[in-house]
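A common beginner's mistake is to predict each chain separately and then try to dock the pieces by hand. The better habit, illustrated here, is to supply every component at once so that their relative placement is modeled jointly.
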Amino acid sequence: MNDKQNAFTGSIVHADSLPDFNRRGLLKAGAGLTLAVMAGPVLTACAEKGAGTAATGGPLAPGAFVRIGADNVVTVTARNAEIGQGIYTGLSTLIADELDADWSQVVVEAAPANPAVYGNPAFGPNMQGTGGSNSIASSWDAMRQAGATARTLLVAAAAQEWKVPAGEITVSKGVVSHAGKNKSAKFGELVGVAAKLPVPKDVQLKDPKAYTLIGKDAARVDAVAKSTGTAVYTQDIKLPGMLVAVVIAPPRFGATLKRFDAAAAKAMPGVSDVVAFKHSVRDGVAVLAKDYWTAKKARELVKVEWDESQAYKLSTEKQFAEYKALAAKPGVEAHKEGDVAKSGAVRYVEAAYEFPYLAHAAMEPLNCVAHITANGCELWTGAQLQSMDQGMTAALLGIKPEQVKINTLFAGGSFGRRSNPKSDFVQEAVAIAKAGGNGKPVKLVWSREDDMRGGFYRPAFFHTLKAGIDAKGELVSWQHRLVGQSILEGTPLMPPGLPIDPLSVEGAANMPYAVPNLLVDVHTPKSPVTVQWWRSVGSTHTAFSTESFLDEVARATKKDPVELRRSLLAKHPHHLEALNLAAEKAGWGTPLAKGRARGVAVHECFGSVVAQVVEVTQLAANKYKVDRVVCGVHCGRQVNPNIVAMQVESAIGLGLGAAISGGITLKDGAVVQSNFHDYPVLRMNQMPAVEVHVVASEDKPTGIGEPGLPPIGPAVANAIALLSGKPLRKLPFSTAGVSFA
Amino acid sequence: MTTLDVNGKKLETDASPDTPLLWVLRDNLNLTGTKFGCGMAQCGACTVHIDGRATRSCVLPISGLEGKKITTIENVGAEAVGKAVQEAWIAENVAQCGYCQSGQIMSATALLAGNKQPTDADIDAAMTGNICRCATYVRIRAAIKRAAAALA
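With all components supplied together, the output reads:
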């Protein structure tokens, strides 16, 4: 197999570029599978497809998001990254429905990095990226309009050709028809004429009653590729002459490289070079070799000395002792209503909560291919924040952002990590290519250990809560103090002029419960330990403390947890609808066998509300099983109910794993955990049954990638508190000796 | 030179004998469907079949593999069980990010090859070594049951 055959050179998900062996496998598997079960689009777009020909003209490409070729292929250009959340399917659904395309003629390609064209409107001007669970919400209008525009042009072309009024033409499943004249044409037959027509500015969008794909369960466009081993991830990229780089990273945050001796490593056959690298996040040493195993073995032979004079050397216990001391003092006010000192409370309920750093630990360890050329730099990676990646690469190389070409590939998970606000792993690949690539493409491959210890964690937090209860047993005051590092401070994404990072207090400052006297304040300690958003961001901790503390209030006032929530949510109809749906479907209030209990939690983030009722069985003194999670969801109109359910299931699994056993700790500043043996994540046997019930709504769609996560931890903790009599206030639960089957 | 029997073909590699099978498959033989996840047999992303048994290839040096029959995701669909599993995976829309799914499919296929009617406990036992960070476990379980029904 020569290098040319292995080359992957497109910005599109491109089955034709697979190595020959894979390709045969795909075609063979694909043939059988297609007949049996495949009813949806396939990810086989390539440059030739969706093109026009001299004879037919075209392609029809009105705008940047859809292109229809003479071959009838409808190519959707996805501005959002496919990190598992199903967005390639979602964006395609919006376009294909308004276009009245047949689902099987749709293919998807990743958009190039071009923020002016493919920016995410929810992120502000010229910021291309994916996050905040906003991809469908921010594309709901634009993608439907893109589909409707193309449809309007195809209809106009048919009207012109057939000399009939456009209003008499119908379109269904990729065929344009006129009943009266008994005329019909596939899209490809009309693109030549349609492409020459002026693009209409205002197009009529469908009445929702006419939707053929929206609200239905369109098959995922990536299902076949991801079930046959043919989906291409960064890890799979092989380019002519490419070197594989592994790194030796600083042992502590803030340590810098003093010197290194690589004589033995360089002498190994297959090793190309050993170089120092430096970028805005850290410096280190990289080994470049012909393949991963060679580079990894050579790495063990390199001797490195670090300057640790400025390095972070605290241990986790000391860090939390400092956080607790801060929590004794007032912080910066995030939200205030009434006066907590004059609430009329006659008694108080108090609790404190600890949240560890969390690693994202996506299945694909971080990686990036960088090729520095005479004209600029080309990247291949599961990019999630293309604008930042372009900008940081350009700054590192002293070139313009538009000279940085990004081939966005499938990401093997992210949970936020691949949209790094400093483009750390992308910069690292580029810095190594600059230092040791000699014009060759360089694939940076982090090991699992590199990934686990590479920082950018969900920040550790310490919370204190204090609720005031009046003589009638009503909740009359609520004080919530948070201590933890800012994610946005020190990045270009921090909103100017704000006294605090909104991500630190989201879910707490906007706590939904009606309490007349409220005070939320925050301390923001600084640390060289790097932090970042982690699926559902601030709500990963604020929902836990708020929702489990509210249950403490319920127990202290002898109220039913669902009834208490209902009584405080009158001004939040979406919360109420989600909560009532979950409670009803779960049979809240009906008897359970001895040793079993239900717990509830409800939380809003990214515009959606998710309520969860869990059923937990106590197996032994400190051992539990989460049997079932019943969800009530309000997320506006569902574009794909099956994918909504998938995202909620996924969020529950990630959140439950973190709650029961996830935690990054530091010993003298060094990360203790290294791999899945000491950073346990949820496994098959621990996954509960999940039921997802969605409130019927014709509102615009809101987020669903993240909102399923925040309630699971507190819902489980609330059930366990009933079974054991001991609330779990420190995460993960394993720190209290609690385990889960 | 080491000669490996991969997917019914004799393939030669000059990789050093201590190289784990995973890296020979990926870097030398260009079979990239088998994934690198942890490097210490903790996550299952690298699962292949060695003489029909689900095996973690990331800790398995090629030195002991001559004469053994190696099957990867690229060819697992050539047999009825693997084909049924892949079809079930697609029908259930199991994959999200998809990175672990080659390994999941290899483990599920090995399970069903030896156990036509696995119980939930059998599925837990066979699949708990395969991590999915997207937590597609609910659908993996459903897909295994669907494949079992299709093969019955």
